[in-house]
Amino acid sequence: MLRRLTKLLGASSIADPTESSPQRKNGLSFGGAVVLVTGAGSGIGQTCAVQFALHGCTKLFLVDLNRSKLEQTKARIQKEDVYPQIELLEANVTSEASMKAMVQQCVKTFGRLDIACNNAGIGGPPARTHEVSVKDYDMVCAVNERGTIICEKYEIEQMLCQEIGFGGQRGVIVNTSSIAGHCIIPTTAPYGASKHAVNALTRCDALRHAKDAIRVNCISPGAVWTPMVSEAGLPQQFIDMGAAQSPLKRYVTAEEAAYAILYLASPQASALSGVNLPVDCATMLLRSL
């Protein structure tokens, strides 16, 4: 097809755009990339950190509110017999000063910031809107919405001032949203509102910074089976209900959510920006707006 087009146009040659495409490389590899992960102390964030290390990343900057959990993440990575350079930072994503310092410390340690995974988030207590306390609402939005915006503010600021790097980009950002940002779940109004905001932020920044070689995407997990869920002592009936709500009749694993993040962060996804990828065992098909 390309040769026929060349002949018709009378051009001597047209370069095949796929010749240098990263999609031609086998597997995901993050060698040479500086990766920052918030919420890295447990669940999806911890699993992300492990998977980045297993896929060749040698410079990891891990952030969480709980230092001891970060140490557990580091130990889990080293248990896999991989030993990247790891910087740990105990910080609160709701603090603008802390997030500004986070990016500055990452750059001071590793020289730049290639990939930022904004994963820190909380669920808040399930309740209908008229039952929600303003305190709970403020906390959910402070972490999920405000925290993501603050992180992106300083991540993008840094990426804009650095040269093209890993994967032919100035930087890549992957946010963690939720199917609650797409579907109506009546008892999670504050959480759903905060994740709608993450979706909008992702699209806005993807469009605004496409010309700057900065990609911005997000994933929307469904019910994810994490240690927090498995160790919560929930009744088996409640656990079974969570699995039954998806067409695949099971939970999403933290590994599956992490793989989606790694793909969106990788050069193999170089054509994707502004994408919101559901990782939900097809649950959204039953709850479409």
From TrEMBL:
<dbReference type="InterPro" id="IPR002347">
    <property type="entry name" value="SDR_fam"/>
</dbReference>
<protein>
    <submittedName>
        <fullName>Uncharacterized protein</fullName>
    </submittedName>
</protein>
<dbReference type="Pfam" id="PF13561">
    <property type="entry name" value="adh_short_C2"/>
</dbReference>
<keyword id="KW-0560">Oxidoreductase</keyword>
<dbReference type="GO" id="GO:0016491">
    <property type="term" value="F:oxidoreductase activity"/>
</dbReference>
<comment type="similarity">
    <text>Belongs to the short-chain dehydrogenases/reductases (SDR) family.</text>
</comment>
<dbReference type="InterPro" id="IPR036291">
    <property type="entry name" value="NAD(P)-bd_dom_sf"/>
</dbReference>
<keyword id="KW-0521">NADP</keyword>
